[in-house]
Design brief:
Chain lengths: ~210, ~210
């Protein structure tokens, strides 16, 4: 047991953070960079990430997250959000970004743009949103793993009032909606830190063909 | 740039695998272990993972995945699947597993079981499936990151005929359906390997509050 497997065995959904221990600016930046570099279908990046440090705001947010202490006590609260406007305009912006980054013409990317636009057009608005949310969950997986490799604790949380969070964070005007929370920081005296990880054995979940 | 950020910059969705280079059994086992250890809501693990090595079967599967060469040419094809039966029975099994692992009584976990059962009961069958699929995407994010740390290439793929895959892999009788593919192996002479990664800058996707 070493490397990534040791990292993943180390991590757990931290219930109690030490409110005194802060993630350094450079470590936080690495976590945000891991989110930025995350994979998504076509590389379409249907997301933005809100980092909440304001104490008063976090007290308010906690009230809309079943009072769970991680919201206020972790070093930083990251709110993973999905763009509600993943459309032809978003794709065009992405293609322009790609052309600039790779020093090619927008025209040379027409086929790629067409395949993405086609994929969007086959879905209704609700399906696009759900597909986009799935991509956000990839970024959550990458963030949790990045945290583990750096021995930074995290706690993915779905149990919160999305409408209240969107309002308190002013997300609607940014064309975003909140998907999942990920407070990050360092574990406190958390009884769950020592609890054995519960996972079905490989024999039950791996099928060979 | 070092550690996890270097790893994530190294990775890309590999279009062309070297069919001669195989992932060793011990490396494969680490990737499967990363999937097994993946985070999920409540730790509910609504997934199984199919590892396909049979060559003939992979030729058949490729036909139902737009003919994309990764399906046959990567060292191993991993099919990430969602359980279609995430219900009270599944939760009961998970709770029994937890009781055994942590050496506590099933009765002491009644509240935890109740909160999970409650969460399931508030959703209809379609919502449970979609929620479960989101969890599978966390495991995809963790797998891709694990691959990157080990310099193993991967290519997440959504573009395939799910019904055909389910039939060819015999998933229905296992109460599973295919969600996303992840061939793993080593990049061949792939022109995309050297292409610059295209990502929006942090200034466009990180919001501070």
């Amino acid at each position: 047991m070493k490397g990534i497997i040791e990292d993943l065995n180390w991590r757990y959904a931290t219930k109690l953070f030490d409110p005194k221990k802060k993630v350094s600016q450079s470590d936080l930046n690495e976590l945000l960079e891991a989110l930025r570099l995350s994979a998504s279908s076509h590389g379409i990046q249907p997301w933005k990430f809100v980092v909440v440090t304001d104490k008063k705001l976090r007290v308010e947010l906690r009230k809309s997250a079943r009072g769970q202490p991680q919201v206020t006590d972790a070093s930083h609260l990251i709110v993973l959000c999905v763009r509600t406007n993943v459309d032809e305009k978003h794709i065009k912006k992405y293609i322009q970004d790609m052309a600039k980054t790779r020093n090619v013409t927008v025209n040379s990317l027409k086929d790629y743009e067409g395949s993405m636009t086609g994929s969007i057009k086959r879905k209704d608005k609700e399906e696009i949103l759900e597909w986009s949310i799935r991509q956000v969950y990839i970024s959550l997986g990458m963030l949790l793993t990045a945290c583990a490799t750096k021995r930074i604790d995290a706690c993915p949380m779905e149990g919160f009032d999305h409408t209240a969070f969107d309002r308190l964070l002013g997300l609607e005007k940014e064309k975003l909606t909140s998907v999942v929370l990920c407070p990050v920081g360092y574990r406190g005296n958390d009884k769950y830190a020592k609890a054995k990880k519960v996972r079905f054995p490989q024999s039950e979940i791996i099928i060979k063909r």
